[in-house]
Every structure is written in structure tokens, then in C-alpha cells.
Prior knowledge:
Layout: H1 14-19, H2 28-34, H3 48-53, H4 66-73, H5 77-82, H6 87-90, H7 107-114, H8 117-132, H9 140-147, E1 153-154, H10 160-163, E2 166-168, E3 176-178, H11 190-199, H12 202-216, H13 222-237, H14 243-251, H15 260-274, H16 281-294
Antiparallel strand pairs: 2-3
Helix pairs in contact: 4-8, 13-15, 13-16
Family: Belongs to the opioid growth factor receptor family.
Organism: Sporidiobolus salmonicolor
Protein name: SPOSA6832_03744-mRNA-1:cds
Amino acid sequence: MHRLFRAASPPIDSSALAARKIPSNLPSDIMAFLFHYPSRSSDRSASANLAFYQNRAAAHPRRLKVNELQDELRGNWGELEGRHDFIQWLFPIREQGVNSMAQPLELHEIEAIKTDPTAMERLMESYVLLSISNLAHRPRSSCIAANKRLPHFSNSYRIMLAFYGMRLVSETTGELTREESTPAPDSASFVRRYANLERNMHNFLRITRILKCMDEFGLARHPPSFLLFILAEQSTHGHLTSPALVRSMDNYWRWCVRDDKDRQFVVQKVDEVRRGGTWTENEYVRWVRKRAEET
């Protein structure tokens, strides 16, 4: 799982931590992420993620290109839950994951994908796929048809959101809401999707990866929005409050925001709610919309 941060190479100066209000005992992977992986060198010959997101090469071991992989996963809740070799391709980060056949993300790949509108749309779709994946067992053909109009990095985000019982309201603001198109007790209802998320804790590591990935690609509005949406669900409705999920949120997720102002706000609000305060849906919506206006 995650390792505790003890010493970075090169070491991170305590004054840099204090200036950004970053605790010195954060997990090592999050510390490296916040400081842009200071000990990691780049390899310009490594371009597997770029080729994958440009639909020129296949993911391994599945041997599917990005469009094919997203089509296979979209609406296929069993695959989204049970397979562990796709998340590293849909959400690449600058760390090696459990799929040894997936390449860690390189800086030149980030810049190339960010300047490719089609690739960025694919990324967003995967995010929504994981959120939608926790929807009902609709015929896959109808799911695919309904999402043909969705763009590709955009596609990855949407895929995962659905899997987690959430829906992206606006790409501009990052605003989320519950996926309420199917009522309980249907397996596609957000109630069942939330229960699946709380029960299957390997998804907590996936969320850490997704938050890091979104920030790497300049989609900085999405990580704080995701976190503050979950906080509103916890505070207002008592959803997503299993001890394991709360621990992951407090110890890992809320720190996966590089923007200091956003991270400090998220940390503050989480602390307030844990002490008995409130964070409502209306406060969440006002915050994400105001932040979008300011940036």
C-alpha cells in the first residue's frame, strides 16, 4: 500500500513544508507528488501512455487501445470492480503501479497529451466511467451509444465517476452530484454504488491515483471538487462514512491537491466536519462555482 514519508532524495526542506502547510509525516508517495517527484529523472524515450491516449498503441496485458478499452469498461460493472490492470492506463501517474506492464507517466507525455484535445477528452471520459460504473446493468450497447458524444481523458473520468455513483455536472467547474437516475434498490442506484465503494477498499487506492492524475494534466479544479462533494455527502446525509473510507480521505485523499490554497481549504473543511461542524450541498455548489469564476 502506501509507505510513510521518512526522507526524500533529495530531501525536502522543512521550510518548504512549513511555507505550504504540508505535514512532514505524510505518506512518501503523496509527499513526492506534492513536490513534483524531485528524485525522479525523466526518460524521453518512454511514450507508452502518450501512444495509448492517442489511440496509437494498446494497453497491456489487455492489448486494447483506449477507445476499445473504454468501450469494454463502460457499463461493465463487474470488469470495473474485478479487474486491476486498466486503472494504470486510464489514469497514468509518475509512479509505478501494480500493473508492471504499465509505464509510469513522463513529463513530455503530460505536455503532449495536454495539447491534444481528443486525448484530454478520453481522459475525462474514464473518470466519468469509474463514477458511472456503479450504475445499473444497462445494456452495454445503449451505454456506448449514449457516451459517443463524450470526449476521451474526459471519458476516463466519467467512467469512474459513474462506477462510484456520481455524475459530473460541469467540466468547467468540476461540480459533482449523486447519480439519481435509477432508484434503490437497483444495483445502479447511488446507494448501491456507494455501498460498493465502501465495501471494496482497493477503490481507495484508485481514487488516490485519479486525484494525482487529474492534477498532473492541469485539471486542478476536479480533485478539490471531488473531495468536497464527498465531504458534503458525509456531513449532510451520512453517506460514505465507513471508518476505512474516512481514514483514506483524511490521511491520503485530501492531501492529493497541489494547489496550496485549494488543499488548505479542503483540509480545513474536513477538520471542521470531523470536529462536528457541517459542510452542506449548497456550500459545496457555491464554492465550486465561485472558484471557477475566480480562475
